[in-house]
UniProtKB/TrEMBL annotation:
<dbReference type="Pfam" id="PF00232">
    <property type="entry name" value="Glyco_hydro_1"/>
</dbReference>
<dbReference type="GO" id="GO:0008706">
    <property type="term" value="F:6-phospho-beta-glucosidase activity"/>
</dbReference>
<dbReference type="InterPro" id="IPR018120">
    <property type="entry name" value="Glyco_hydro_1_AS"/>
</dbReference>
<protein>
    <submittedName>
        <fullName>6-phospho-beta-glucosidase A</fullName>
        <ecNumber>3.2.1.86</ecNumber>
    </submittedName>
</protein>
<dbReference type="GO" id="GO:0005829">
    <property type="term" value="C:cytosol"/>
</dbReference>
<dbReference type="GO" id="GO:0016052">
    <property type="term" value="P:carbohydrate catabolic process"/>
</dbReference>
<feature type="active site" description="Nucleophile">
    <location>
        <position position="368"/>
    </location>
</feature>
<keyword id="KW-0378">Hydrolase</keyword>
<dbReference type="InterPro" id="IPR017853">
    <property type="entry name" value="GH"/>
</dbReference>
<comment type="similarity">
    <text>Belongs to the glycosyl hydrolase 1 family.</text>
</comment>
<dbReference type="InterPro" id="IPR001360">
    <property type="entry name" value="Glyco_hydro_1"/>
</dbReference>
<keyword id="KW-0326">Glycosidase</keyword>
<dbReference type="InterPro" id="IPR033132">
    <property type="entry name" value="GH_1_N_CS"/>
</dbReference>
Length: 470
């Protein structure tokens, strides 16, 4: 093979809470994203105890995709997208998370959304839970601290699997499931209280998610055996800072914390290293007898992963740190960085693809990758984002090298994102990722008008030629 497969899934990615808006429309309940205020560069978002009058919550309107999805999907089709990765907002379907019956208005919205995609031949790729934990379940159960969440998640899955079984083929259970160890409140609605043991809370909650994911895979395959149900993780390529053995060891241990999750979801069991890791922390997971069987029988069909930057591991106590995708990485002197301090490392993506494929030998799907940057609208309305094109071009080359030269099976690429949206980490709009510009600022002001950036036309050509003209 000297080119990507003809059925390679070129697409784009968003999440419901970062683009839909309409946070209280059609019976929708509050999610954890709906109580997250805007932050800013280097400023953490605040998660309030409900919606407080006078505070600004970016997800409440976001880019108003809820009302504008037909216009946006038409632009995605113009760009040539083969697939569109989005998520289903749990609280649109079950406003409190634990109702006996789903909300028909919410189900109907996603019916219409998926129908609009399919009209243009765009394959929906759906993340079931993408940082959208129902706030009512956080208050009632402490979120994923409780095993009760497993059955409630499965009720959600059953409703959407049955409703969309003829419309959606590709699913992923939890977005960046390993981020529960990095930002538990954003990932799972878990705020560690004073006096709580962080690791004990997080790894018990993670176990509940892993069991829920495995049972969802089984359920989905029962409802439609043709479903392709994957996991999704943040993949943080780690380099040892030096060839010093201690640096090599810490680099290994750093990535092991993330393989903890993929090992369970792909192999169907905790690795011996993971078991020992928990034991060394004095943690004994409170499990049910059927958990092991569920994990074993609920292995995923593919691995979806996000890759934005690589990281450096060191034993040196005086190391200088830079930004990263929720990881404070040691500065790499061989790499340039984005305005937000994230290293730019296309070769790291090739390494990630190789590492994952060699370890698991199942299909891979790069479902997030992109450059957050400040875009300038020229007087004539044009937006020249050559820096984004350069970033994406180099990462597409890395994917091609992994597939063509290294023999990795990669089924698709959905850059983050096909359209500007609210940044998950900071709540900003000025940190833009999209091929399509949305007129809205960090204060929520703007016309919401859409316009094509230069990268829109670059990606259109990339897709038309299956990655040959980049």
């Amino acid at each position: 093979m000297n080119h990507l497969p003809d059925n390679f899934l070129w697409g784009g990615a968003v999440s419901a809470n970062q683009c839909e808006g309409a946070y209280d429309v059609g019976g929708k309940g509050l999610s954890i994203a709906d109580i997250a205020t805007a932050g800013g560069l280097g400023v953490k978002r605040e998660y309030t105890d409900g919606v407080i009058k006078g505070k600004y919550y970016p997800s409440h309107q976001a880019i108003d995709f809820f009302h504008r999805y037909k216009e946006d999907i038409a632009m995605f089709a113009e760009m040539g997208l083969k697939c569109f990765r989005t998520s289903i907002n749990w609280t649109r379907i079950f406003p409190l998370g634990d109702e006996a019956m789903p909300n028909e208005a919410g189900l109907r919205f996603y019916d219409d959304l998926f129908d609009e995609c399919l009209k243009y031949g765009i394959e929906p790729v759906v993340t079931i839970s993408h940082y959208e934990t129902p706030f009512a379940l956080v208050k009632k159960y402490g979120s994923w601290r409780s095993r009760n969440m497993i059955d409630l998640f499965l009720r959600f899955c059953e409703a959407i699997f049955n409703r969309y079984k003829e419309k959606v083929k590709y699913w992923m259970t939890f977005n960046e499931i390993n981020v529960i160890t990095l930002n538990p409140i954003m990932a799972a609605g878990i705020k560690i209280e004073e006096g709580e043991d962080f690791d004990r809370v997080i790894y018990h909650a993670a176990h509940h998610q892993l069991v829920a994911s495995a049972k969802a895979v089984q359920l989905g395959h029962q409802i439609n055996p043709d479903f392709k149900i994957g996991m999704m993780m943040l993949y943080p390529t780690f380099y040892a800072e030096t060839c010093k053995p201690e640096d090599q060891l810490i680099a290994m241990k750093s990535i092991d914390k993330h393989y903890y999750f993929s090992d369970v979801q792909v192999r169907g069991r905790y690795s011996s290293k993971a078991i020992r890791y928990l034991a060394n922390k004095g943690i004994t997971l409170q499990t049910n007898p059927e958990d092991d069987k569920a994990l074993e029988e609920g292995i995923v069909d593919y691995i979806g992963f996000s890759y934005y930057n690589s990281n450096v591991a060191t034993t040196r106590p005086d190391a200088a740190f830079t930004g990263g995708n929720m990881l404070n990485a040691v500065k790499n002197p061989y790499l340039e960085e984005s305005a937000w301090g994230w290293s730019i490392d296309p070769i790291g993506l090739r390494i990630a693809l190789n590492n994952l494929y060699e370890r698991y030998q199942i299909p891979l799907f790069v479902v997030e990758n992109g450059l957050g940057a400040v875009d300038t609208v020229e007087e004539d309305g044009s937006i020249h984002d050559d820096y984004r094109i350069d970033y994406l071009r180099r990462h597409v080359k890395a994917i091609k090298a992994a597939v063509i030269e290294d023999g990795v099976e990669c089924i698709g690429y959905t850059p983050w994102s096909c359209i500007d949206l609210v940044s998950a980490s900071t709540g900003e709009m000025k940190k833009r990722y999209g091929f399509i510009y949305v007129d809205k600022d960090d204060d929520g002001k703007g016309s919401l008008a859409r316009s094509r950036k230069d990268s829109f036309f670059w990606y259109k050509k990339c897709i038309e030629t299956n990655g040959e003209e980049i």
